[in-house]
């Protein structure tokens, strides 16, 4: 597949457009899994210059989304060993939690090894992504339901994202 390029949603998209998008979120489109399609067409990432950018298509991300989808279907776990700043917390912290909460109405939990990292992931990734979703997608959700400012994002219909700090004894010890 050639690189996927998203040109934006139509400004005056009607309900049928969004219903077709929801089908793509579930089944995929243009050679992408549904989760990857959602990430590229709905997501926003915070650039190092502080600007809101759409995620770029990367072959490595395609591989991660496809392997994750395969693991979900086979009931297996996925371990990703990566360098820092690869974007895994954006994919699995922001995209995956919001995808599951919005598409399936599922409660989602994000964790981190310390409160500082959790706060950064929640505000710079999850909340940043959510605040830029089109109103038509989030209209039924409470956009301002942030308890304690960083830990809880209520999405209605059973879907929410909750951030929880892990205890030191629960952490996986790693080194670089």
Total count of strands: 6
**Continuous helix count:** 6
Mean pLDDT: 79
Secondary-structure-derived class: alpha+beta
Q: Which descriptor suits the 3D outline?
A: globular
Biggest sheet, spatial arrangement of strands: 3-6-5-4
Q: Which series of helices and strands comes N to C?
A: HHEEHHEHHEEE
Q: What portion of residues is helical?
A: 40-55%
In percent, how much strand structure appears in the residues?
Answer: 5-15%
- Main β-sheet, in a few words? 4 strands, mixed
Task: Give structural notes.
- This protein has 176 residues and is α+β, with helices and mostly antiparallel strands.
- It contains six helices and six strands, in the order ααββααβααβββ.
- The protein has helices spanning 15-27, 34-42, 59-74, 88-104, 115-131, 135-138; strands at 45-46, 52-53, 107-112, 146-147, 152-154, 160-165.
- The strands form two sheets. The protein has a four-stranded mixed beta sheet with strand order 3-6-5-4, with helices on one face. A two-stranded antiparallel ribbon has the order 1-2.
- Helix 1 (15-27) packs across helix 2.
- Mean pLDDT is 79; it is low at 142-152 and 171-176.
């Amino acid at each position: 597949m050639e690189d996927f390029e998203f040109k934006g949603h139509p400004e005056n998209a009607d309900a049928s457009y969004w219903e077709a998008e929801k089908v793509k979120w579930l089944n995929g489109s243009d050679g992408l899994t549904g989760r990857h399609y959602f990430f590229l067409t709905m997501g926003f990432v915070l650039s190092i210059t502080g600007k809101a950018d759409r995620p770029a298509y990367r072959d490595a991300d395609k591989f991660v989304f496809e392997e994750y989808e395969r693991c979900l279907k086979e009931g297996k776990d996925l371990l990703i060993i990566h360098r820092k700043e690869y974007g895994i917390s954006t994919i699995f912290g922001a995209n995956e939690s919001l995808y599951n909460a919005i598409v399936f109405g599922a409660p989602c939990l994000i964790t981190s090894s310390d409160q500082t990292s959790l706060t950064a992931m929640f505000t710079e990734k999850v909340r940043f992504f959510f605040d830029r979703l089109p109103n038509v997608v989030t209209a039924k959700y409470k956009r301002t339901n942030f308890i304690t400012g960083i830990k809880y994002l209520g999405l209605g219909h059973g879907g929410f994202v909750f951030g929880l700090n892990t205890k030191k004894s629960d952490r996986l010890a790693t080194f670089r």
